[in-house]
Amino acid sequence: MMLTEHFSLAEMIATQQRGIDNTPDSAAIRANITRTAQLLERIRELLGAPVVVTSGYRCPVLNRAVGGSQYSAHLQGLAADILAPQFGVPYDVCRKLAPHVEDFGIDQLIYEGGWTHVGLSDGAPRHQLLTWFGGSDYRSGIMVRGGA
Fold first, then answer.
1. How is 24-58 classified by DSSP, letter by letter?
2. How many CB atoms are located within 10 Å of the residue 111 CB?
3. End-to-end CA distance of the chain
4. Stated pTM of the model
5. CATH architecture entry for 9-140
6. Which of 10, 34, 53, 70 is in the most buried spot, having the most CB atoms within 10 Å?
7. In the chain, where are the structural domains located?
8. What is the pLDDT of residues 98-131, one digit of tens each?
9. Is 4 exposed, middle or buried (0-12, 13-18, 19+ CB in 10 A)?
């Protein structure tokens, strides 16, 4: 089932974790997944390149299995970890998206080294630009790992 022109429900809930049923269990979560897919369409248009979802919605069991935060927007279908290899490395994606977090209604844009995290919010978006350095070490701003 296609949620938008380029993003299907299947890719927004896909997991490599065997034995975990990651099917969303509520209409609200399915609506959030669609909102996230709509954001990804805008990102795809901005980048001028396809966007690959490496992690979208995560049910609680999956989120625990991958070590996700108990407060993760992935649990509500409001986040996706993405790559855009035809555009560039995740750092380049973050730098391109950073000026658009307000226009796109992005709650969190996180450079996580190997991927870019984009998240929405149920309430007013915080428009946070962050870099993850491991564990619970998130720092304000989009930085190259190991420095500014």
1. --SHHHHHHHHHHHHHHHHHHHHHTS--EEEE---
2. 26
3. 42
4. 0.94
5. 2-Layer Sandwich (3.30)
6. 53
7. 9-140
8. 999 999 999 999 999 999 999 999 999 999 999 9
9. middle
